[in-house]
Write a structure and sequence with these properties.
alpha+beta, Immunoglobulin-like, five-stranded mixed sheet, 8 helices
């Protein structure tokens, strides 16, 4: 009895692992639904074939062959039946493979069907974060952010994928399939989020030391809220008014920070690291490694190598009062 209970608990744990905010079996968009449907069809067909093979194997193990006086004598009817069974299995296997291949091709055509996108985004994979550029018809409407993608619910989104160093793979399981980011080659993937929510993604191609900490977040908002967010993101950073934030801005500009990061509206204009114009409006830092909070910002600024060893952000020497000021400044970039 206890073994049966343990089996039920184990099965429940396995099933529960197939759900959540990063699951291809919990689709929230048409592209993800196509992939999930194809997965279940393949699983059902392969499961049926496996069950049939096990039944035939069990019959072969249980059934006793009749004794023959002459072991070398051929049983013509039996040989004919065997030939027909094996031939039928070969034909059935070929037809199954052809059918599944045709089905996969049909679903692939649906996944890559051309559609006029409502939002155009360029995502560049770097070690180990995502540079996100929202493209627009006029330069003043385009902007750059990092590690988070905001999209309108029910609207098609086209993502152009580039890489500057090694091969990465863009994957948000609940919304789409995988697509590689290859240096020197631009790939594209489209998706639509059917409902509001936060969907976690991940680099799905080993890209170096911190590959496991190269996450991203897709936030799907109703169209009015998305337009509000879009308008806020196109604006430059507000100038700090509080004395501590002013001090933090001066320290930021005097250290190595402004040599790597860009903050629109200030003289910090480097593109080596993530754009920080609206840094504190994001939900996480360091490519979804830490949640956005004052403590996380302080820990990251003080010792990025301790949190994400191998990252290209160096440790910057800051006194305690300087650290507080810089954190206050960054915390106000919304």
């Amino acid at each position: 009895m206890w073994m049966r209970g343990a089996g039920v608990i184990g099965l429940a744990l396995l099933i529960s692992a197939c759900s959540g905010q990063q699951s291809a079996l919990e689709p929230h968009g048409p592209e993800a639904e196509h992939i999930a449907r194809l997965f279940w069809i393949f699983t059902a067909v392969c499961g049926t074939i496996w069950f049939a093979v096990m039944v035939v194997l069990a019959i072969g193990l249980v059934r006793r062959a009749p004794q023959r006086l002459d072991p070398l004598a051929l049983d013509v009817p039996a040989e004919r039946r065997t030939t027909m069974v094996v031939g039928g299995a070969v034909v059935g296997t070929a037809l199954t493979v052809i059918a599944l291949s045709a089905l996969s091709f049909a679903f692939q055509r649906q996944l890559f069907a051309r559609e006029n996108p409502a939002v155009n985004i360029k995502v560049t994979g770097l070690q180990w974060w995502w540079n996100v550029e929202y493209e627009a018809d006029t330069p003043d409407q385009g902007f750059t952010t990092a590690n988070e993608i905001y999209v309108p619910v029910g609207k098609p989104v086209l993502v152009r994928l580039d890489a500057n160093d090694v091969i990465h793979s863009f994957w948000v399981p609940s919304l789409m399939g995988k697509m590689d980011l290859i240096p020197g080659q631009q790939n594209q993937i489209k998706f639509t989020a059917n409902r509001p929510g936060i969907y976690r993604g991940q680099c799905a191609e080993f890209c170096g030391w911190q590959h496991a900490h190269m996450g991203l977040t897709v936030v799907a908002l109703p169209v009015p809220l998305f337009q509000t967010w879009l308008k806020a993101q196109t604006a430059s950073a507000t100038e700090p008014q509080e004395p501590e934030r002013k001090k933090g801005a001066e320290i930021f500009a005097s250290k190595a920070c402004f040599m790597c990061h860009s903050i629109r509206g200030t003289r910090a204009g480097s593109r080596v690291g993530p754009d920080l114009t609206h840094f504190a409006s994001r939900q996480s830092i360091a490519a979804a490694t830490l949640p956005m909070s004052r403590g996380s910002i302080a820990a990251w600024v003080l010792d990025p190598q301790g949190i994400k060893p191998g990252t290209n952000m160096p440790n910057v020497s800051l006194a305690p009062d300087e650290l507080d000021a810089v954190v206050s400044y960054l915390e106000g970039l919304r």
